């Protein structure tokens, strides 16, 4: 049985995250730290990928060398903040296939509405890692994973930077099979659905839009 939640407490992750939370941190620094953390989180989320061996020749002799097994994995960015995690993870797993899910919140119904969906083929045969820095209410994450499942994905993990207890509970209820890997579980959501203490609006902080 895989654990539903992995909280990565590595000192490097925690140190970098604290700098990112600080409102005095610049956009450039925030983006660089996000790239660095995304690679450390990707290291954790891929820890138990299936392996096989391939016969290779070293300069000394032939050996059965360990290599990743199965189809190339799929990284799916939940727009727009997911793109900040995507770049770093792709550096670590350059042959991964990439998809995008775009959702916005309808202000009347408060329900997520899809405006973009493009994912790699044969999703059912791939490990799918959905990336979004903030698991807040969980509404958009749950909707994005609903869509990935509709598109055939059966083996999905969710990579984020910060999670709220509310978001974790919502995901567990809707998608108990989807493992969450996060650098922190914060205290709560405020009335506007922001994570507290959090780091503010992740998209604005990484793209400098505020
Ligand atoms: N999205 C953000 O960017 N920040 C939050 O705190 C919650 C959702």
Task: Describe it.
It is a single chain. This protein is 33% helix and 30% strand. It is an alpha/beta fold and 210 residues long. It has one domain (5-47, 72-207): Rossmann fold (3-Layer(aba) Sandwich). The strands form 4 sheets. A 7-stranded mixed sheet has the order 1-11-9-7-4-5-6, sandwiched between helices. A hairpin with a 4-residue loop joins strand 2 (51-57) and strand 3 (62-68). Helix 1 runs antiparallel to helix 2 (27-45) and helix 2 (27-45) packs across helix 3 (82-92). It is globular, with a radius of gyration of 18 Å. Uracil (URA) is lined by residues 81, 134, 136, 194-195, 198, 201-203.
Show the helix and strand layout.
Elements: E1 5-7, H1 11-21, H2 27-45, E2 51-57, E3 62-68, E4 74-78, H3 82-92, E5 97-105, E6 112-118, E7 127-131, E8 134-135, H4 139-150, E9 155-159, E10 162-163, H5 165-174, E11 179-182, E12 184-185, E13 188-189, E14 195-196, H6 202-207
Parallel strand pairs: 1-11, 4-5, 4-7, 7-9, 8-10, 9-11, 10-12
Antiparallel strand pairs: 2-3, 5-6, 13-14
Helix pairs in contact: 1-2, 2-3
This protein binds uracil.
The site of uracil (URA) has 9 residues, from helix 6.
CATH topology: Rossmann fold
Overall CATH architecture: 3-Layer(aba) Sandwich
Major sheet details: 7 strands, mixed
Strand order of the largest sheet: 1-11-9-7-4-5-6
Instruction: Name the hetero compounds present.
Output: uracil
User: What share of the residues does DSSP label as strand, in percent?
Assistant: 25-35%
Q: How many independent structural domains?
A: 1
Return the CATH class.
Answer: Alpha Beta
Radius of gyration: 18 Å
Mean of all residue-level pLDDT scores: 95
Uncertain stretches of 5 or more adjacent residues? none
The general outline is globular
The tally of beta strands, per DSSP, is 14
The run of helices and strands is: EHHEEEHEEEEHEEHEEEEH
Distance between the termini: 43 Å
Q: Class by helix and strand content?
A: alpha/beta
Helix content: 25-40%
Task: Please tally the helical runs, counting DSSP H or I stretches of 4 or more residues.
Answer: 6
């Amino acid at each position: 049985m895989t654990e539903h939640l992995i909280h990565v407490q590595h000192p490097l992750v925690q140190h970098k995250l604290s700098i990112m939370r600080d409102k005095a941190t610049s956009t450039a620094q925030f983006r660089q730290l996000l790239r660095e953390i995304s690679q450390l989180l990707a290291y954790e989320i891929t820890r138990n990928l299936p392996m096989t061996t391939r016969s290779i020749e070293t300069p000394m002799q032939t050996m059965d060398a360990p290599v990743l097994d199965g189809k190339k994995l799929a990284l799916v960015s939940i727009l727009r903040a997911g793109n900040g995690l995507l770049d770093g993870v792709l550096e670590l797993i350059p042959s991964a296939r990439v998809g995008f899910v775009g959702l916005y919140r309808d202000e009347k119904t408060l329900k997520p509405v899809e405006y973009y969906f493009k994912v790699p083929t044969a999703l059912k045969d791939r490990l799918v890692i959905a990336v979004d820095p903030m698991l807040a209410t969980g509404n958009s994450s749950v909707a994005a994973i609903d869509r990935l499942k509709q598109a055939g994905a059966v083996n999905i993990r969710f990579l984020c930077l910060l999670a709220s207890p509310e978001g974790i509970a919502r995901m567990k209820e809707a998608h108990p099979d989807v493992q969450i890997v996060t650098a922190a579980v914060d205290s709560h959501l405020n009335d506007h659905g922001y994570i507290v203490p959090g780091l503010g609006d992740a998209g604005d902080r990484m793209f400098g839009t505020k």
